[in-house]
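ugh ok so i messed up the first submission bc i forgot one of the chains. this is the corrected input, ALL of the components this time, i swear. 276 residues overall. if the numbers dont match what u have on ur side tell me asap before i send this to the collaborators (the ones from the other lab, u know who)
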Amino acid sequence: MDCCFNYIGFVRRDDNSTSRKSIVKIEIKETYAEGLKDIEEFSHLIIIYHLHLADPNKDLKRIRGGVEVGVFATRSQHRPNSIGISVVELIKREGNVLYVKGINAFDGTPILDIKPYDEWDSVPNPKVPEWHKLNETI
Amino acid sequence: MDCCFNYIGFVRRDDNSTSRKSIVKIEIKETYAEGLKDIEEFSHLIIIYHLHLADPNKDLKRIRGGVEVGVFATRSQHRPNSIGISVVELIKREGNVLYVKGINAFDGTPILDIKPYDEWDSVPNPKVPEWHKLNETI
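and heres the new structure output, hopefully the right one now
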């Protein structure tokens, strides 16, 4: 493998879902907690996580709207490198725990990085194909 | 280490900068090229890369606007897990090469993942603190 990373924390949620509607806890390990200072001055964050339940060895094609498209043209969790990202609203911080809304990851998902969301991340009207809107996530 | 990944490609640019203004090539390895099929139907992408020149062992504080803030409240390249992301405009695809605008990574930066940018990634008016706008990147 070309590069390796350590988990900095975990997703903690009570429901057994990946719903973006829930307020979910991101619990950062004490070792890294100091790195959160002043993060609450941002309204939104980018959470980068390890899709630890996904299969990185699936083929490179996915079916969307009946058509075969490439995995990099999808947000499928099964991709060569099992990295997931979600843009979330930061509700509040309590010490090493962030309360966020908008993450579509399971309870226990390991966190790799947290970045503040800024104007460079914001594209007003991104063009996406019709088949993407069907929201097939496999 | 908790998880490891393989490089799927590299940033190729002629200038010796990380300017977002340049049109830059993302060259994907032939092994993964099939995964790009139909990606050109999206206007924007999220490029996830390994900050291979960064120092992951720096402390967890950064100075912004004269104040000490946590590394996760910054886009500093020196962070516990050396993962970078850029939102880019996709200009065109030629086989296994993507021409993109908006990436602030050096020539030779290894690519970990590419995702299509969609409406979930788009936050209209993110709140960021004044010190973030000073754009100190250390």
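quick check: Chain A has one domain: 9-131. that seems consistent at least. The domain at 9-131 of chain A is CATH 2.40.30.70 (Elongation Factor Tu (Ef-tu); domain 3).
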